[in-house]
Design a protein that fits this description.
The protein has four helices and seven strands; from the N terminus they run βααβββαβαββ. The protein is α+β, with helices and mostly antiparallel strands and about 130 residues long.
Length: about 130
């Protein structure tokens, strides 16, 4: 498996598959080098997209792995590459969130993230905030 920063040539694939971001925001994220892409034999199998919480703390907005590739280490590889780059860039911590009823919280806790609070987005369930010191 290969994990790399996504680029403009990945925009069409990401726009077609990432339903949680507007096209112009995706283009901005790509230009800012804030999207990682995991590939297996040259085909995309997952991606991680982040931004900066409070303009100073890397926050993983989305970690997605295709269903047929879940449990194969793709998510760990994406998260590890991102954390390594954030550490190298001088950040002291990274953050993410997940809905409290989702299993993703266990994935993050197993990789050193700890609960840091949460909130109820309008019309949705409890969103759990997680943080990891780098």
């Amino acid at each position: 498996m290969n994990v790399r920063l996504a680029c403009d040539r990945d925009a069409a694939f990401l726009a077609a598959h990432d339903q949680h971001i507007a096209r112009e925001e995706l283009e901005y994220a790509l230009a800012r080098r804030r999207v990682y892409l995991a590939e297996e034999r040259g085909a995309p199998v997952g991606w991680l997209r982040y931004n900066l919480f409070w303009d100073n703390t890397p926050f993983c907005n989305l970690l997605f792995v295709s269903e047929q590739n879940r449990g194969a280490g793709v998510g760990s590889a994406l998260l590890g590459a991102w954390e390594s780059d954030m550490r190298a860039a001088g950040y002291a911590a990274v953050m993410t969130s997940t809905q409290a009823e989702e299993r993703a919280q266990e994935f993050y806790r197993a990789r050193g993230y700890r609960d840091a609070g949460g909130f109820f987005p309008y019309g949705e369930g409890y969103e759990l905030i997680l943080i990891k010191k780098l």
